[in-house]
Design goal:
GO terms for molecular function: ATP binding; metal ion binding; pyruvate carboxylase activity. The chain contains 16 helices and 24 strands. It is of the alpha+beta class and about 475 residues long. The strands form seven sheets. It has an eight-stranded antiparallel beta sheet, sandwiched between helices. It has a five-stranded parallel beta sheet with strand order 5-4-3-6-7. Helix 5 packs antiparallel against helix 6, helix 8 crosses helix 9 and helix 13 packs antiparallel against helix 14. Bound molecules: adenosine-5'-diphosphate (ADP).
Length: about 475
């Protein structure tokens, strides 16, 4: 068989870096994100490899790759996609050059990135040490402080005694927020408004965190009132080059989890945007960030911004950035991992411009009428919204598809792109209304309620929006 490998050595000052074009790339994930990556691989003329659990033997991602291999025999549904040894063995056996982790599962595990490297396989993401540093909230905060980026005032290490939380609240004032050190995905957070409640609520949060995450340690932070969640998309190459691809507004959240994402952030004053973008770049340069990543900030009502965390991976909402910049982030990730420079990819900061506005809705198989309980079963009828400016990223959105309770309930990401925010919202509303899904319940009625709120259309929402509008759940 024809080998398309090319090994070249480049010189950058005194640095020598190898570029190596991949033939075959394995995606250690499932669902829509696995298919998203396969599409990029096919466009780049590379062979795509899927891995699938026993529970996923009929799933679409298995069928969309050029090759597919069973992993995690006998393991529970999620554990299969966390079986590092089996995934690496599969990759080695089938001559895979690189592994893309998607989001979730192993995408934030520096030990997985290291295991790939040890097996001679390129991990499509940051280096293991940068992943480890960014994955640790204390170390990430420290890096931000070193880079001169303002962080949310908080304890500099996880604490285990209520007394330390009381001290913090006395010093910084209330409200404060407790966060489980080993939580994530919006879980394990609790706001406290009154100093006299701190002791009692700390104890409760500590024991909840211990049973939910195996360790009760908590961070204490100043609670930022009425914040917006603004995050910056970055790409860094292996040669010190780093660029931003502007920002997203992910303030529409339910229980601290993103529901609707917008790019660029509408109604963000230009001066604030500039500072946030510059801070994100400074932090990324400081840690030597490579590949795609996101720096997250909270912006208070006065326009002050505070670093919260770095996501050292591709995010669910990367699509809205792709729509407004025209840059295929997954292709960029792959080519950067091959050793290409941003210059090779024609991605200088000046050439990255935004065009219009994009909105993403996460359509899930959750029933808003039953407190968003995941629904499962067979989709009997499926018609989607289509037409100009609508993009759909999905794996299981079709008639006959079986929605299993084993995995996350994301059914389809609907992305609308138009010249400005109100036009993108109008397209999204129109597209969501075109959907007809029978057999499983979805959150589409809830999403329509959100999108038709005047404050959403005016782009004046903060993270309190959904909680303050109980009528959205009707
Ligand atoms: P996770 O890692 O669990 O996703 P994050 O730290 O990214 O948690 O926070 C998720 C969301 O929780 C934020 O977008 C915001 O809405 C809320 N949040 C987190 N920290 C604070 C804070 N200090 N003040 C106010 N809201 C916060």
């Amino acid at each position: 068989l024809l080998q398309l490998h090319s090994n070249t050595v480049r010189c950058f000052g005194n640095k020598q870096t190898k570029t190596r074009e991949f033939n075959k790339v394995l995606v250690a994930n499932r669902g829509e994100i696995a298919i998203r990556v396969f599409r990029a691989l096919t466009e780049l003329n590379k062979t795509s490899v899927a891995v699938f659990s026993e529970q996923d033997k009929l799933s679409m991602h298995r069928l969309k790759a050029d090759e597919a291999y069973l992993i995690g025999k006998g393991l529970p549904p999620v554990a299969a996609y966390l079986a590092i040894d089996q995934i690496i063995d599969t990759a080695v056996k089938h001559n895979v050059d690189a592994i893309h982790p998607g989001y979730g599962f192993l995408s934030e595990r520096s030990d997985f990135a290291q295991a790939c490297q040890n097996a001679g396989i390129v991990y499509i993401g940051p280096t293991p040490d940068v992943m480890a540093r960014m994955g640790d909230k204390v170390a990430a905060r420290q890096a931000a402080i070193e880079a001169g980026v303002q962080v949310v005032p908080g304890t500099s290490a996880p604490i285990t005694s209520a007394q330390e939380a009381v001290e913090f609240a006395k010093q910084h004032g209330t409200p404060i927020i407790l966060k489980a050190a080993y939580g994530g995905g919006g879980r394990g957070m609790r706001r406290i408004d009154r100093i006299e409640d701190v002791e009692e609520l700390f104890r409760r949060a500590f024991s909840e965190a211990r049973s939910a995450f195996g360790d009760g340690s908590l961070f204490v932070e100043k609670f930022i009132e009425r914040p917006r969640h603004i995050e910056v998309q970055l790409l860094g190459d292996h040669h010190g080059g780093i660029v931003h691809l502007f920002e997203r507004d992910c303030s529409v959240q339910r229980r601290h989890q993103k529901v609707v994402e917008i790019a660029p952030a509408p109604a963000l004053p230009a001066g604030v945007r500039e500072k946030i973008l510059a801070d994100a770049l400074r932090l990324a340069k400081h840690v030597g960030y490579q590949n795609a990543g996101t720096v997250e900030f909270l912006v208070d009502s006065k326009g002050q911004h505070f670093f919260i965390e770095v996501n050292a991976r591709l995010q669910v909402e990367h699509t809205v950035t792709e729509e407004i910049t025209g840059v295929d982030l997954v292709q960029a990730q792959i080519r950067i991992a091959e050793g290409k420079t941003l210059e090779d990819l024609k991605l200088s900061q000046e050439t990255i411009q935004t065009n219009g506005s994009a909105i993403q809705c996460r359509v899930t198989t959750e029933d808003p009428a039953r407190s968003f309980q995941p629904d499962s079963g067979r989709i009997e009828v499926f018609r989607s919204g289509e037409g100009m400016g609508i993009r759909l990223d999905s794996a299981s959105a079709f008639a006959g598809s079986i929605i299993s309770p084993d995995y996350d309930s994301l059914l389809v990401k609907v992305i609308a792109h138009a010249r400005n925010h109100p036009n993108a919202a109008a397209k999204m509303i129109r597209a969501l209304k075109e959907f007809r899904i029978r057999g499983v319940k979805t959150n589409i009625p809830f999403l329509l309620n959100v999108l038709t709120q005047q404050s959403f259309l005016d782009a004046s929402v903060d993270t309190y929006f959904i909680d303050e509008h109980p009528e959205l759940f009707e």
